[in-house]
Design goal:
Blueprint (H helix, E strand, L loop, with lengths): L7 H12 L3 H14 L4 E7 L5 E6 L6 H7 L22 H9 L3 E7 L7 E6 L2 E2 L3 E2 L5 E7 L6 H4 L5 H18 L4 E6 L2 E6 L4 H9 L7 E8 L2 E8 L4 E2 L5 E5 L2 E3 L2 H11 L8 E2 L1 E6 L5 E2 L10 E2 L2 H18 L93 E6 L3 E6 L2 E6 H19 L4 E11 L2 H9 L1 H6 L3 E4 L4 E8 L7 H15 L9 H11 L10 H13 L13 E5 H7 L4
Parallel strand pairs: 1-8, 13-16
Antiparallel strand pairs: 1-2, 2-7, 3-4, 3-7, 4-5, 4-6, 8-9, 10-11, 11-16, 12-15, 13-14, 17-18, 19-20, 20-21, 21-25, 22-24, 23-24
């Protein structure tokens, strides 16, 4: 077959196949056009999952009759000031999306300039263009796409159900709405409003679109490096999802799916959440146009950075710093409330915010030093006159017949996590705050404290080791023995001294002093599993937090261990002072809070 030029209609349909793979892509392109036109209000209506109808109305700058004709031509645009394709400061190219959509649908555009003149209309049917004619219309632009892909029916066979396609359309608008909180957005599906977002502050917009728990369960991100600026909000490690669907990444306000940015997010959270969980966040990266390439993907869903390593470092560093600054905060935890009794009205309570509150001092008495690495700050010591009933003994609580009042909290100090009142089930610490109660998990909390202390010692290059009275022999599979002995020198930096002890066994001579007395065997076996997963090419220093998390878990106070009141209060005080103490090394929350109002609702007093 001889070489020949394809007809323009077929060329447009091929281009449409690259850019408009489903109705949501058309919605995205049209809404981006509205944003670029300076709209303050964008309304979207879809029917049949977007295959039957997509209607996008905006109050932007609008187009004159001459511009309306040019807008549906290939390679026509108002968004490039010159021929520099790298200097892109808008979201899309009006002259690229419209002819592509018009080539595979029945496209109607009615537009009227905001600065005067009447409205005009143009229609494209499978790429065939009508004359521009006067039509009624308000200032702005109204684009209606009917029967999408009717000119390429094979594409229709690959669409999902109308409900699924509609969800993709709504999600496309939702992502753009996150990046433009100053613009009002509305979406209707089959006549029902499914998204309504008035112009508002950035965090309010994100909370509206990502769930009411996001605002109280997130930290603000603000950082810069050279020409790059990073902003947004990131969920605390206790606010996670089963998938990465709620990780929203934007570059110059453009939603992107970028492997480098996604990898940076994983690196920042990797020792803070469980491996099968994903953080919730919205990050906005701003860069000069010459520092990135947005033309590496037909739909501009991917970007390429000139300084990829610098961008990754900026994201990881900013997230880690913000999460560490959050201290012991945790995301709101859902609390089950009983159904209202007949005739009673119990309103659903707000979730616990996990925010620090000014609280009374913890009553203190003597302090036992039974917890390794746990010291009692002088500020945490109360007076003997305020010594609470000692309820941490192994004997069960027995009422005396005459109830005694609980001791009043000391007025001279305030602690966010309150004063320890009891140990429950030999696992949880019950503390009283000024306006409620806190329930803390002793193992999870001490695990985070040990993790941060050991990591700080490693980074400072001075992990103290403690020789075992009797070296411990740990039996392992031969492959595990070989793997762990090959890393013996690196493990020594973590405070673990091992050597070979014949086939299928290793000898443990020293352990990190910070761990106190603990059985080396489970730790060594877990370290062998960790090394198997890391592989031989990864240095342990590069996987610092993963290895430290393994070690810290084995050196922490276990569930089932009875604690004295002083030990419980010391644990609470150090949680308040330790970064990331709102969750353990595996991402589980270390404490939850019930406010006075929530307690009253539990008992039907509100």
């Amino acid at each position: 077959m001889p070489i020949r030029l394809l007809p323009p209609t077929l060329v447009n349909r091929i281009a449409a196949g690259e850019v408009i793979e489903r109705p949501a892509a058309a919605v995205k392109e049209l809404v981006e056009n509205a944003i670029d036109a300076g709209a303050r209000r964008v309304a979207v209506t879809i029917e049949g999952g977007g295959a039957s109808l997509i209607l996008v109305e905006d109050d932007g700058a609008g187009m004159s009759p001459e511009e309306l004709h040019l807008a549906v031509q290939r390679h026509a645009t108002s968004k490039l000031s010159d021929e520099a394709l790298v200097d892109i400061r808008t979201l899309g190219f009006r002259g690229e999306a419209l002819p592509s959509i018009g080539a595979v649908s029945r496209l109607e555009i009615v537009s009227r300039r905001r600065d005067g003149g009447g409205a005009h209309r143009i229609v494209l049917t499978a790429g065939e263009e009508s004359e521009v004619a006067p039509a009624p219309g308000a200032p702005g632009t109204r684009v209606a796409v009917r029967d999408l892909f009717f000119a390429t029916p094979a594409r229709l066979k690959f669409l999902k159900s109308p409900r699924t396609e509609a969800e993709h359309c709504v999600d496309a608008v939702r992502r753009l709405a996150m990046a433009h909180p100053d613009i009002a957005f509305a979406v209707k599906n089959e006549g029902r409003e499914v998204l309504a977002a008035p112009a508002e502050e950035a965090l309010a917009r994100l909370g509206r679109l990502m769930g009411k728990e996001f605002a109280p369960g997130s930290v603000q991100i603000t950082a810069a490096r050279e020409a790059a600026e990073l902003s947004g909000f990131a969920g605390l490690p206790t606010l996670t999802r089963a998938t990465a669907a709620e990780q929203h990444l934007f570059v110059n306000r453009r939603p992107v799916r970028d492997k480098l940015l996604a990898g940076a997010v994983r690196a920042a959270y990797h020792d803070l959440i469980a491996r099968d969980r994903h953080p919730v966040l919205a990050l906005f990266l701003g860069l000069p146009p010459e520092e990135l390439d947005v033309n590496v993907h037909p739909a501009k869903a991917e970007v390429r950075f000139r300084d990829a390593a610098g961008i990754r470092g900026l994201v990881v560093g900013a997230l880690r710093a913000a999460l560490a600054a959050a201290g012991h905060r945790v995301a709101p935890q859902p609390i089950p409330f009983p159904a209202a009794r007949p005739g009673a009205s119990i309103a659903a309570p707000p979730s616990a915010t996990g925010m620090p509150y000014p609280l009374p001092a913890a009553p203190r008495a003597g302090m036992s030093d039974r917890l390794p690495g746990l010291s009692v700050p002088p500020a945490a010591r109360g007076t003997a006159a305020l010594h609470a009933r000692h309820i941490a003994s192994s004997a069960p609580f027995a009422p005396t017949g005459t109830p005694t009042a609980a001791p009043a909290p000391a007025p001279e100090q305030e602690f966010p996590l309150g004063a320890a009142r009891a140990q429950i089930l030999a696992t949880y610490i019950l503390a009283e705050t000024a306006d409620g109660v806190v329930l803390g998990g002793q193992h999870a909390a001490h695990e985070r404290l040990t993790h941060e202390r050991l990591k700080a010692a490693l980074l400072a290059g001075r992990v103290e080791r403690q020789a075992l009275l009797l070296p411990a022999v740990v039996e392992l599979a031969e492959a595990d023995c070989a793997r762990i002995l090959a890393r013996a020198e690196e493990l020594l930096a973590f405070g673990v001294m091992i050597e070979g002890f014949g086939p299928g066994a290793v000898l443990v001579r020293e352990m990190p002093a910070l761990l106190g007395p603990c059985d080396p065997a489970p730790l060594v076996r877990d370290l062998a599993d960790e090394l198997a997963e890391l592989g031989g090419s990864t240095r342990l220093a590069d996987a610092l937090d993963r290895v430290v998390a393994r070690i810290a878990c084995h050196g922490s106070v276990r569930a089932g261990r009875r604690l004295l009141e002083g030990e419980m209060n010391a644990l609470l005080r150090q949680m308040e002072e330790t970064p990331l103490s709102g969750q353990c090394s595996h991402g589980r929350p270390t404490w939850v809070k019930l406010s006075r109002a929530e307690l009253e609702r539990l008992f039907g007093r509100r």
